[in-house]
Design brief:
74% helix
């Protein structure tokens, strides 16, 4: 007879298999096409066994969103350690400002690419279903993205190193940065969860350029206003 610990481990393993199967199906047909039976069939279990793990498809969807949320929070923690906030002086030229900006944008984008590559189907689903038709999943993703924006805003407002922008502008910059990096890396993938190494490199470089333009424009506008 299996011990409680063994039974728990087996249940967790089956839950992971269900989620992995669901992600494969999402990559092929989209989240809206998922059904209890299709996921169970893909996972190799009886449809009735699905209910031992999730009450319905959307509960599993929320569980997937929670997994992605944890991954993205880890990404932002890693990015924070590698990013250097730009030190902008009143008389800096646009070229000098750009040089400083790159110390923020490159690690921000490169660490996101690494996060995406760790589980591309999960991260793709997370951002894709932000505007999806499943209310519980959409709500969970919206809440998670709002948290990422708040965390990035706080990073950009670090005492003594903050961007020279007011709180509202900094929050808008944070939201735009997350939007740019998620769309830039994901939309360049060959298909959901499939991306060649060279393709990923080009996508990351293009995203960095867009981030540079975003921050350069915001900082020059602030500099011009102060002048």
């Amino acid at each position: 007879m299996a011990s409680r610990n063994e039974a728990k481990q087996q249940k967790e393993k089956t839950s992971r298999t269900l989620i992995e199967s669901a992600l494969e199906l999402c990559a092929e047909e989209g989240y809206a096409s998922l059904s209890l039976r299709s996921v169970a069939r893909k996972a190799g279990i009886a449809p009735t066994s699905f209910y031992r793990h999730f009450r319905e498809i959307d509960e599993m969807g929320v569980a997937m969103a929670d997994q992605a949320k944890d991954m993205l929070n880890d990404w932002l923690t890693t990015a924070r350690k590698k990013m250097t906030l730009p030190l902008i002086k009143p008389k800096d030229t646009s070229e000098q400002i750009l040089t400083s900006i790159k110390q923020l944008t490159r690690p921000f984008a490169e660490t996101f690419t690494a996060c995406f590559n760790d589980n591309p189907r999960l991260i793709h689903l997370f951002f894709q279903e932000r505007t999806g038709c499943a209310d519980p999943l959409r709500a969970a993703i919206t809440d998670a993205v709002d948290g990422l924006i708040r965390n990035l805003t706080e990073i950009l407002k670090q005492p003594g190193k903050a961007l020279p922008c007011d709180a509202e502008t900094t929050a808008m910059i944070a939201e735009a940065m997350i939007t740019l990096v998620s769309r830039g890396i994901m939309e360049s993938s060959l298909s959901p969860g499939v991306q060649s190494v060279e393709h990923a490199k080009r996508a990351t470089e293009t995203t960095i350029q867009k981030l540079n333009l975003l921050l350069l424009g915001a900082l020059i506008a602030k500099q011009t206003k102060q002048g």
